[in-house]
Amino acid sequence: GGNKQITDREGLVKLLRWHFGHSDFRGKQFEAIQAVLSGRDCFCLMPTGGGKSMCYQIPALAKPGIVLVVSPLIALMENQVTALKEKGITAEFLSSTQTIHAKTKIHEDLDSGKPSTRLLYVTPELIATPGFMSKLNKIHARGLLNIIAIDEAHCISSWGHDFRPSYGKLSSLRNHLPDVPILALTATAVPKVQKDVIDSLCLESPLLLKSSFNRSNIYYEVRYKDLLDNVFNDLSALLKSSGDVCAIVYCLERATCDELAAHLSKHGISCAAYHAGINNNLRSSVLDDWISSKIQVVVATCFPSNGHYLRQLCSFRMGIDRKDVRLVCHFNIPKSMEGFYQESGRAGRDQLPSKSILYYGIDDRKRMEFIISNAENKKGQSSGGSREGSSKKSLADFKLMVEYCEGSGCRRKKILENFGEEVPPSLCKKSCDGCKHPNQLVQYLEELATIAAGRQRSGLSRLFLSSSNDKVGGEQMSEFWNRDDEVSCSDEDISDSDDGIENAKREAGCKASRRAGVNAKIELLERAEERYYRNQNSDKPSHKSDKNA
Ligand code: ADP
User: Fold this and answer.
1) Is the pTM of this model over 0.80?
2) Residue 82 C-alpha to ligand 1 middle, in angstroms?
3) Alpha helices in 182-279 (DSSP H)
4) Nearest residue CA, atom 17 of ligand 1?
5) How much distance in Å is there from the Cα of 257 to the middle of ligand 1?
6) What is the pLDDT of residue 20?
7) Region 416-440: what's the mean pLDDT?
8) Hey, whose CA ends up nearest to atom 23 of ligand 1?
9) How many Å lie between the centroid of ligand 1 and the Cα of residue 518?
10) Are the C-beta atoms of residues 410 and 428 closer than 8 Å to each other?
11) How confident is the model at residue 513 (pLDDT cuts 50, 70, 90)?
12) CB-side exposure of 413: number of CA atoms within 13 Å?
């Protein structure tokens, strides 16, 4: 209560203890809070789990008035608002999912001279509506709009991995409300994205705060599929030996998700598949069951970067809020280090020891290279953009990921160097396989190199007749090829076109005439194999018939 503003460290720490039970600020939290309370713009770069929300939640308690929080996902807003209300902090969110009654109540509160709401969460779409902007102006005119916090601020940049066009509308905030300090928060460290965010939001000499991206409580390990007898069994053994812990397993394809989830269930592991081919109701019940600990393991697809955000929502990436994830497993190599960092970073948000385990396979690598080149080609063709540049960039991104897997030495160092961080030798403290078992790792890599050389000699056709339990099908290809085409996206949109092997050959043949020679032959072979495999799998029920079931 009262009209006092708290700005001193001691007072702010008291708020932190009283409302959230944390003993002191972590990392750069205090600096961020101090900056925005003094009216300065701030750009806050902190890894996932770094405690970004405190940077605007404490200011909301330190000063009478409202902190506006822009957040990309309704689920994310709901989560935070519920958590705040449980702590007795008055927070609300405005979204299309609310009843008219609920909205009216919130608007009445905002219109009053003394709103009880301390934090108001909204979507970027709402900011863009003229009615809402004039409401903000009115609140501001009464001196009650203290800070605008932009969560997941990287969504404004088309260079980022979660680009959302609606975030572009946020650039009007500065024009309409020039003297309200803006706090931009993100876990995306790419310098280009950083610059984009600052420019797009028109931040004025913002205080730049960057925390280390080291996740000291995560143990990093790579397991080599080509050296394992059975990858499915290895994963189920890993989960079992870890106890009944909370885990996320990311796969490239839906089919792998389904098979893996079935396999794990059969071995007594409480788990479910989660991907775009599962109908909405089931998907949200899986998410609910996982968040409420009824299910411990979720096997999900990881859509690669720059897909439509709804697809990313489906891909179990943003907005996951379970702090006790002990294990994040990548069953296939991710497309980029950035994606890998974000996904593995879902582990151990409670700061307790956790693991990131990546299953790496030679065939997975080849497949991903093929996918990246093709997806980029297609994108280049449809947008008329520089496909070669784009493809090169994606392949370069992927190469870092391959180096993470195929290199000896410290994994942590490889991750952090990607973010431009210096890594002192003592940093890892043997919490990766490269530091803990360096000799064994070198031996594995030698064996892997031998196998890879053998494959090279035996020819390319192995590409789609690949090893282990990981089925290869055309579905994954068409997912990648389709994913950037639609502006709107629903389950129905995520479907697989059903042309047969003849079409595949014709398609490849067209290219063959353009690109004569051996390359075209390889491509023809690859495409034909890929379609062939899809046809082999076509006796499986498609997600469309799932829905009717
Ligand atoms: P981010 O949004 O950066 O991913 P969150 O804001 O969700 O991170 O915070 C991650 C976790 O860290 C939460 O469980 C939160 O309660 C905890 N946390 C935040 N600040 C502190 C602090 N100063 N001391 C201890 N725990 C904290």
Assistant:
1) no
2) 16
3) 191-200, 231-241, 254-266
4) 51
5) 31
6) 95
7) 91
8) 25
9) 55
10) yes
11) very low
12) 16
Residue 53 Cα to ligand 1 midpoint, Å, equals: 7
Closest to 184 (Cα-Cα) out of 69, 279, 78, 299: 69
**Residues comprising the chain, all counted:** 549
| Contacts of range 263-266, beta carbons closer than 8 Å, 24 or more positions apart | 263/232, 263/236, 263/469, 264/235, 264/236, 264/239, 264/297, 264/299
- Ligand 1 — pocket residues by CB below 6 A? 22, 25-26, 29, 46, 48-54, 323, 349
Q: At what angle do helices 518-537 and 501-514 cross, to 10 degrees?
A: 170
For tokens 């099908």, the residue is 473
State the pLDDT confidence band at 387, using cuts at 50, 70 and 90: low
Take residue 533 and report the two structure tokens written for it.
Answer: 């495999």
CA-closest residue to ligand 1 atom 16: 51
Q: Which atom of ligand 1 is nearest to the CA of 16?
A: 23
Rounded to whole angstroms, the Cα distance separating 165 from 79 reads: 23
The distance of Cα 326 from the centroid of its chain, to the nearest Å, equals 17
Average pLDDT over every residue of 245-269:
95
Residue 58 contacts residue 188 (beta carbons within 8 Å): no
List, in sequence order, every beta strand (DSSP E) within 33-90. 42-45, 66-70
Residue with tokens 């955000």: 309
pLDDT given for residue 459 in this prediction: 60
